[in-house]
Amino acid sequence: MTATRKIAAVSFAAMALLLAGCASGGNAEGTAAKAEKQAEAPAAAEQTKQEACTDVQTALQELSSLSSVDSSDPAAALAALKEASGTVTETAAKVGNPEVKAAADQAAVALDEYVVYLDGMVADPANADISAMSEHITSLQESVTELGTVCAS
Predict the structure, then answer these.
(1) pTM of structure
(2) Using one digit for the tens of pLDDT, what is the confidence trace for 110-139?
(3) Number of folded domains that form the chain
(4) Which of 27, 55, 64, 138 could form a disulfide with 23 if both were Cys (CB 3.0 to 4.6 A apart)?
């Protein structure tokens, strides 16, 4: 396994483990139907906190499924991560509850920044800033934790 693949494997595994606990709950049929509904619906101005948290949790479930992605193919794993990140970003944009909105947006931004970082790392592994990985993972973890805190209160 090349250094790039090892780095990518560790990075994707860390992210999947980090998000696995945050995205638990729901059933597969409800999740798919809700995801389609979210993609079509504009931000709900009168959205309850629980509705917003459920919507974001559903989007994060896509991230937790990345633990089954074959990390020996960094490009494919990155493509799956980009798709999941897009789902989280779209869902955060539609959150209408002000209590949840800021935390959802922050989690989406942290995930997007992590994806951009990984994209650069996979594209140019020789010049990858490995030390920045922990910063991105910490930022992502903190934003997801904050979202969980907002939704738990």
Answers:
(1) 0.72
(2) 999 999 998 888 888 888 888 898 899 999
(3) 1
(4) 64
Predicted confidence band at 151 (pLDDT cuts at 50, 70, 90)?
very high
Structure tokens at 59: 């989007």
Structure tokens at 127: 């010049």
Residue from 53, 44, 49 nearest 25 by CA: 53
Residue 62's domain spans which residues? Answer: 3-152
Q: Please, how many CA atoms are within 13 Å of residue 72, restricted to the half-sphere of its CB? A: 1
Amino acid at 39: A
CATH at 14: 1.20.1440
CB 71 within 8 A of CB 5: yes
Reference 64, options 39, 84, 44, 92; nearest CA is 84
pLDDT exceeds 50 at position 33: no
Name the token pair of 114: 């992590």
CA distance 63 to 65: 5
Q: Give the residue carrying structure tokens 């738990």.
A: 152
